[in-house]
Structures are given as C-alpha cells and as structure tokens.
Amino acid sequence: YDQIADQLQSLPYRQLMTYYRCALREVETKFRVLDDQFSLFYDRNPIESIECRIKSQSSIYHKLKKRNLPFTLESLENNIFDIAGIRVISSFSDDIYMLAGTLLKQDDIRLVERKDYIKNPKPNGYRSLHLIVEVPIFLANEKKWMKVEVQFRTIAMDLWASLEHKLRYKKDLPQSRLDEISQDLLDCADLCAQLDEKMGKLKRTENQPVIE
Ligand code: 0O2
Q1: Which long-range contacts (CB under 8 A, 24 or more apart) does 37-41 make?
Q2: Which ligand 1 atom is at minimum distance from the Cα of 130?
Q3: 175-205 and 93-105 helices cross at what angle (nearest 10)?
Q4: What is the pTM of this model?
Q5: pLDDT at 2
Q6: Which stretches make up the RelA/SpoT domain (predicted)?
Q7: Which pLDDT band, with edges at 50, 70 and 90, does 179 fall under?
Q8: Among the listed ranges 45-49, 57-61, 174-178, which one has the minimum average pLDDT value?
Q9: Cα dist. 47→38, 70, 140, 141, 191 in Å?
Q10: By the 8 A CB rule, do 65 and 3 touch?
Q11: In the structure, which protein residues have their CB atom closer than 6 angstroms to any atom of ligand 1?
C-alpha cells in the first residue's frame, strides 16, 4: 500500500476523484428534484434520505488487489464502477422502482449495469437495487461521462444492511462465529422483507397516486 501512496497523492488521481465527486452531485440533484416534485404535486416524499460517498483509498486498493488488477488510473476507471456511490433510502419498495425507472428515463443518463438484489437477494439475505449509471459532467473544455453506483433501499433493507455490515461484512470473525450468526441474519432479512411487503400493501390500500 505504501508503494502506491505517491500515486494517491498525485494530481491526476485527485483530479479523477474530484470528477467522481462532481458526478455524485449531479445524480444527487436529480433525486432531490424528483423528491421536490413529488412533495409539491402529491404531498409526499418518496425519498427518506440520501447518502453520498467516495470509495476510500484502501477500499479501492483492496478491490484492485482482489481482482489482480494494476493500480493505474485507467484500470481504476475501467474496472471499479463504485468509486462514486449514492444510496437512496425510501419508505416503500414501490418507490424504489419508480425512482429507478424515472432516473433511467432521463436523456443524460446511461445504464451500464443493473443488479436487482431485491428480486434476487444475496444468499446472506442482502436486499437492495444497484444501478451503475453514467452521467456527464461539464468541465471548462470537455464533457466527461462518469460512472456512479446508485443503491436503492427501503428503510428496512438499510437497517438490515447497516447492522449486518457492523456484525459481519468485512469483519475477520472466525468461521464458527460466522456460521452461528448467518442463520439469524437471514431470519432478520426475512422479517425485514415481510415488513416491506406489509407496509407496501398498506400504502396501496391508501390509494396513493403514482407517477408512471
Ligand atoms: P465500500 O467502498 O466499502 O462502500 P464486490 O462485492 O464489491 O467485490 P461488486 O459487484 O461491486 O463487487 O458488489 P455489489 O454486490 O454490486 O455491491 C457492493 C456494495 O454493495 C458494497 O460496497 C456494499 O455497500 C453493498 N453490499 C453488497 N453486498 C452486501 C452485503 O452482503 N451486506 C452489506 N451490508 N452490504 C452489501 P462495499 O464493497 O462495502 O464498498
């Protein structure tokens, strides 16, 4: 890690990270605009909260190392798609698909990859909708398309993921302990899914308007 420290301090690296930060701002604004529109016309907010983050240097380094990829800016841009990450938390799963669909309809957004861990949860119980999109940022002399990962979750999915992250994800727990907690975590994930399902039904019976 020390060997690449110079590169991490270099101007091109910092420049690239700045571009990712700009791309995050563009996408965040899009969601804030949609939330405002809903608030104005339908008197409700489909978004509970938004979190933005730039992937940490050590996390980038470990991902490249795990995949046996060189630590160069090209390799970073071409292989790591979650350097800029935005998490959109909603109350209801229906809102997740509405927001994702609305974002993808915008003519300056390109879909790169879609992973639906809500319809197909991970074996450990993780649920979330992940989109990798490209968005243009306008610099003084050029337009640059940057990749951003958008994670859509309900409050219940986010609660589960945060607790699981604390308990297990990336922690060096002994295998025996991991085995012990994994069934409990899976049970908790099922409870969260049931909660989402029930709350979704309640909302639908309330006859809330939906933008198609
Ligand atoms: P960071 O930088 O720490 O936030 P990968 O699994 O990362 O090698 P890929 O395809 O990028 O490969 O993964 P994926 O599954 O599309 O998304 C990775 C991100 O999703 C993670 O970021 C988490 O934010 C989230 N995630 C995926 N699986 C789980 C899980 O089982 N539990 C929890 N709590 N979160 C998960 P990182 O890797 O933590 O990056």
Answers
A1: 38/211
A2: 16
A3: 80
A4: 0.91
A5: 63
A6: 52-175
A7: confident
A8: 174-178
A9: 10, 38, 33, 35, 22
A10: no
A11: 55, 59, 82, 115, 122, 124, 126, 130, 161, 164-165, 169
For residue 42, the model assigns a pLDDT of: 78
For residue 149, what pLDDT is reported? 98
The CA distance from 68 to 63, in Å, is 9
Q: Which atom of ligand 1 is nearest to the CA of 125?
A: 31
Give ipTM to 2 decimals.
0.91
141, 143, 147, 153: CA torsion to nearest 10: 110
Q: Which amino acid is at 184?
A: D
Concatenated DSSP letters of the chain: -GGGHHHHHSHHHHHHHHHHHHHHHHHHHHHHHHHHHHHHHHS--SEEEEEEEEPPHHHHHHHHHHTT---SHHHHHHH---SEEEEEEESSHHHHHHHHHHHHHSTT-EEEEEEETTTS--TT----EEEEEEEEEE-SS-EEEEEEEEEEEEHHHHHHHHHHHHHTTT----HHHHHHHHHHHHHHHHHHHHHHHHHHHHHHHTT-----
Nearest C-alpha to atom 11 of ligand 1 is from which residue? 82
Strand partners, 130: 115, 151
